[in-house]
């Protein structure tokens, strides 16, 4: 059935248009539509009006005064330039030098407590600032104690290595961040929370020359003494020692030149079985194959850094090469993408700047009431979830989950389009296994998200009178995973669209009274399809 | 122009904006002020090390966001951002009737902004600072399409407030 209404751009599309965030092709369509449609022009003017209100509020609104005058940043930059932390700021006069020697002799008895505490705090602050500005490169660390040692990624947010639980417990007791132990931020967080402590700053010699060490002792924590050694050049931490009460000690140090394991988002890839072909033979084959194999390797590399989930990256074949193009990405992210693809032959990487803002929209002051009709069931949902604030939280959570599900569905569809059965047949066994791992992981995440969305929506939809029906949710048997992907994508998208109608007031032709029931059915279909797809892929690996 | 000049220029230009952004994240004013200065010192360190930063404004807000969230975790509580409304409500040169209308309108707008989720508020703030969706996405750590959706919902709420 033809629907005129479906031709109108939605509110978000209009906003993106006004913000110059639509792809050029979409922008052309919307612009042409606006020329013809008074209603949408008025809608756009309403959006602009609200944006104008906010901009006036933002710009002319109250700017609270900071509690004290701003520092002279130039002075602080000059301090950073000085070869501190240990060199004095100015060369002292001779008589001052003599006095200083006397003073130092006295302070040696007192262990420099006050001045060194200040230096340690300043060092930590500067190191944290450096760490924030330049996240450390991925790296491995070695954890050593009396009885054993092991290595792990410096940043580990997933389950610990087997056997590390006792160490983790020690750190937990001391309230020291075990997820990222070799980090000045973690050290500073522990340090700053101590009610009583003494700091000392040391400059080691010998093999540790070129570093500076902070030593912190306390009687108020399970960790009675800790040190962190920083590289003088950039104040990045290179090692730490921990002395726990009860005489257990632990030493953590970075392993230079060792890349960190892939991030937790892609654990399955990291646990791939050993290749079925010899590495040397495989490398040789890869050198000569710029087709599906190389494409899969590129996707897998992007997947490891989470760049295959909705980021503006295109992969296209160009001559004998694969051209990877990123649009509007920050330099840091660009570098991550470049690094992830480094070493893959026949792959060119390019980054484009985003299109300039298109100042297309009108600036009229037309008022347009959008009032309650936009989210007709909001009041009922607020009642069900416990108020307006709870509604916002609930809606944000559900829409974010749906967004995640759509990202996975898009990633699956992308794999299916790039690797139809004929292309998959060209892959060698290891690459077929890699492809299977990629789609399995996406399917698992998608199934988990779909189940969570349904579980969170079920009580709300029930309160709105909707019932789940399972009669039409059982998927048909799929001839292959590519076909299954299409159905899973369609059902995920349907659920996403209806969810946006219910919780975000997206345009729809569905009568308000029918939305809960239709959404309930769509969520059940989405969940059932995603679960069946996941199970099919899992069974295929047995 | 030296690197000191460049960073100092950026600091003078944007420090109030960064400070205000950190307040909206829930930092207490002294911490927000110190964090603001840290952010620009971080910028200096990064530039000094030769890091290529094409869009310093987006970079500064990204670092400020991450730094602010880390600091907020250490606070005992989150400080709600409640600017001095009276300052903004002054309407010099307007008739009492118009001033009253302006005041009511601004109060509705202020209430609507306060009712937004933190992420929606961040998106609005950063968009008003001139950041693109992709940049906002990187600052607050969500997808670009989520930024579009946050903004749409936020604008919808503001429209309701102004139409009420």
Shape of chain A: globular
Number of strands of chain A: 10
Mean pLDDT of chain B: 83
Tell me which oligomeric state these chains represent.
heterodimer
Number of domains of chain B: 2
Structural class of chain A: alpha+beta
Number of separate structural domains of chain A = 4
Looking at the structure, the CATH topology of the largest domain in chain B is Arc Repressor Mutant, subunit A
**What is the alpha-carbon Rg of chain B in Å?**
18 Å
Average of per-residue pLDDT values of chain A: 73
CATH class of the largest domain in chain B: Mainly Alpha
What CATH architecture of the largest domain in chain B do you see?
A: Orthogonal Bundle
What would you call the shape of chain B? globular
Proportion of beta-strand residues of chain A: 5-15%
What can you tell me about this protein's structure?
The complex is a heterodimer of chains A (542) and B (164). Chain A contains 18 helices and ten strands. Chain A folds into four domains: 8-52, no CATH class; 113-255, Lipoprotein localisation LolA/LolB/LppX (outer membrane lipoprotein receptor (LolB), chain A), CATH 2.50.20.10; 282-352, Alpha-Beta Plaits (2-Layer Sandwich); 373-539, no CATH class. In chain A, helix 13 packs across helix 14 (388-418). In chain A, the strands form two sheets. Chain A has a seven-stranded antiparallel sheet with strand order 2-1-7-6-5-4-3. In chain A, strands 8-9-10 form a three-stranded mixed sheet, covered by helices on one side. By secondary structure, chain A is α+β, with helices and mostly antiparallel strands. Chain B has 164 residues and is an all-alpha fold. Chain B folds into two domains: 3-74, Orthogonal Bundle (Rna Polymerase Sigma Factor, Chain: A); 85-163, Winged helix-like DNA-binding domain superfamily/Winged helix DNA-binding domain (Arc Repressor Mutant, subunit A, Orthogonal Bundle), CATH 1.10.10. Helices cover 76% and strands 0% of the residues of chain B. In chain B, helix 5 packs antiparallel against helix 8 and helix 6 (118-128) packs across helix 8 (144-163). Chains A and B meet through helix 1, helix 3, helix 4, helix 6 and helix 8 of A and helix 1, helix 2, helix 3, helix 4 and helix 5 of B.
